[in-house]
Design a protein that fits this description.
Elements (H helix, E strand, L loop, with lengths): L1 H8 L1 H15 L3 H13 L1 H24 L1 H7 L1 H27 L6 H7 L5 H13 L2 H15 L11 H22 L3 H31 L3
Helix pairs in contact: 2-9, 2-10, 3-4, 3-10, 3-11, 4-8, 4-9, 4-10, 5-9, 6-8, 6-11
Length: about 220
C-alpha cells in the first residue's frame, strides 16, 4: 500500500505525466485527424479513431516498460522501416485531405454530413491504430518517459511501478483525445467546419504532408 501511494505521488511519475500530457495535447497528426473526423463525420467516428490511437500508445508503452522498446530503438533497420511506413501514411492522409479540399463545397450541416465519407468502426479504429504504430517518435517518447520514472533520484526513493506509469499516462491520453473528439463534434464546431471546410482540409493536407516529409527525411 505504501509502495503504491509512493508511486502515485512520486516526483518522477508526475514529471513523466507532465511530459506525456504536453506531448499529447500539442497539435499533431493524431489530434488533427481527430478534429477533422469530429467536425466532418461526428463524435462517434472521432471517438472510435481516438481509441485506435490510444491502443497504439498502449502498445508502445507496454514494449517500453518491458524493455523491448529499447531493443527496437537499437535496431536501426526496424526503426527505419517504421519511419518510412509512418511517413508514407502521413502523405496518404495529406492526399486525402487535399482531395477533400478540392471537392465542391457543402452547404449546411446536413450536406456536410452527407458529404462526409462513411467509415466502419473497425476501419476508423485501425486507422487510428496505424497512425500511432507507424510513429517512431512514440517509441522514443515512451522510452524517455519510462526512464524518468525507473531511475531513482535518491537512495531512499524507489522507481515508480510500470503499471502505475502506463495507467496514469493513458488516463491523461483518454482525457485529451476524447476531449478533442467531443469539443470539435459540437453543433457550433460543425457549423464552422461547413463554412471553412475547404480551407481546413487544405491546411490539414499541408500539415500532414509536412509531417510526412519531415519524418521521411529525418536522420533519427
Amino acid at each position: 500500500m505504501t509502495y503504491v501511494m509512493h508511486d502515485v505521488f512520486s516526483a518522477q511519475l508526475l514529471l513523466a505525466c507532465s511530459v506525456y500530457l504536453v506531448g499529447t495535447a500539442s497539435p499533431g497528426p493524431s489530434n488533427l485527424a481527430i478534429m477533422s473526423l469530429a467536425m466532418g463525420s461526428g463524435r462517434r467516428a472521432a471517438l472510435t479513431f481516438a481509441c485506435g490511437v490510444l491502443s497504439g500508445s498502449f502498445f508502445w508503452a507496454t514494449l517500453a516498460t518491458l524493455g523491448l522498446a529499447a531493443v527496437l530503438a537499437a535496431c536501426s533497420t526496424l526503426l527505419i522501416a517504421i519511419k518510412i511506413a509512418g511517413g508514407l501514411y502521413l502523405l496518404w492522409l495529406a492526399l486525402k485531405s487535399a482531395r477533400a479540399a478540392l471537392s465542391g463545397n457543402a452547404h449546411g450541416p446536413a450536406a456536410a454530413s452527407a458529404a462526409a465519407q462513411p467509415y466502419s468502426a473497425r476501419r476508423l479504429y485501425l486507422r487510428g491504430l496505424l497512425l500511432h504504430l507507424t510513429n517512431p517518435k512514440a517509441v522514443l517518447v515512451w522510452l524517455s518517459i519510462v526512464s524518468l520514472t525507473m531511475s531513482s533520484q535518491s537512495s531512499h526513493a524507489g522507481p515508480a511501478h510500470p503499471a502505475v506509469l502506463v495507467a496514469s499516462c493513458l488516463t491523461l491520453g483518454v482525457g485529451v483525445f476524447f476531449s478533442y473528439a467531443v469539443l470539435f463534434s459540437t453543433a457550433s464546431a460543425r457549423r464552422i467546419y461547413v463554412a471553412i471546410r475547404r480551407w481546413f482540409e487544405a491546411s490539414l493536407a499541408i500539415a500532414f504532408g509536412a509531417a510526412g516529409v519531415k519524418l521521411l527525411l529525418s536522420k533519427s
